[in-house]
Amino acid sequence: MSTRINYTHYPFSATQRDFPGLFVEKPSILVSTSSELRARLLNMLKGVLDGGEISMESTLDPEESVLFYYALLDVLKSIGDSRVVSRVALAYSKTASKYLSEEKGELLVLLANKLGLNAGYETSDYPRIPRVLSGLGRVSVKMVSYQYSLPINQYLELVSKRLLHDPTYSLVNYFIWSGRVYVDRSTFIRILEEHIYNTIINHVAQAEPPEAVDYSSLIEEVRSIVSKYYEKIAAKPRVVEGESKSPYLPGGGLVLIEDLFPPCMKKVVEALKTGGNPSHVERFNLAAFLGQIGLGADEVLDYFRNTPDFNEKIARYQVEHILGLRGGRKKYMPYGCEKLKSIGICPITEQCKGGKNPLAVYKYNLREYFKKRGEEEKEA
Questions:
Q1: Same domain, 213 and 187
Q2: pTM tops 0.90
Q3: Are 131 and 173 in contact (CB under 8 A)?
Q4: Which of 14, 218, 231, 352 could connect to 32 by a Cys-Cys bridge, CB 3.0–4.6 Å?
């Protein structure tokens, strides 16, 4: 593979110096005044919202990729919707990750450095270190080459947000020397993907959209597309409160009252409702919790439809696996309270009443709720 950056795949790394001709006039104005470019940009955005990836068919060469990218920055800044911004940033980072896996180490580091990281790459035969891998009840040891490195402060900054609760990225798994963290290739690519996501979020925040009339008509079209997207993914409400006189439903399962969720589950649900992007571990625990309450796969999926990286096919497979509907048919439980506290998902320091896991706490909250309601009805 070439050590030159292919801007068709990585347009977010291009600057005005790389493509001065594109910036004679603002890219968003160039796109909005061309019916062909305008239509292709809108189709590209639809593809991002529906599929969560950037289609390479929407751009023919590096210049167009960069043109559309910078036009999108203005569009996203103008509509001011953090969920759409996050979904577009995630689409770019996920699409880029597919190409990163095929690149040489030198290009990975070149791209990382161009995006502001102080990355290093050891071309010599760097020491191979044993790494313990675990998953699905199995533990194995693999010899891994740690050729890529970042300063500790940059590494911690990158994993402190969406990757914080994933033990894979704990420093104990890697080699630290002279203030740098040495990681294997797959981890470096995942870290770079995360940095791309953050970079695009920052690019949108720094964008300065034009005020031209032609451009504002483009914004209205984009708002219409976004509105239709939200209508499509709107979660179906599950009306339960007031329908039952017991915590238990006739067909099995528990009554669903989100206000009675334990704090850890409330935290994840609130993040989902406000356009956040909970970590994989948070999503797993919420899905397992909802499944144990008695929700089916479709009802659990409705909780995740507003996430920026939602993909119906992938999400359904994962949810059905957690709910014991495929694979080994094991229905998973959410983590216990102590583990949720240790990995930073539980937002409180004290112990909830009712038990030592979210499901037990929720059952206790339901019992107390229906007991109080029954007493109030008797008094009435």
A1: no
A2: no
A3: yes
A4: 218
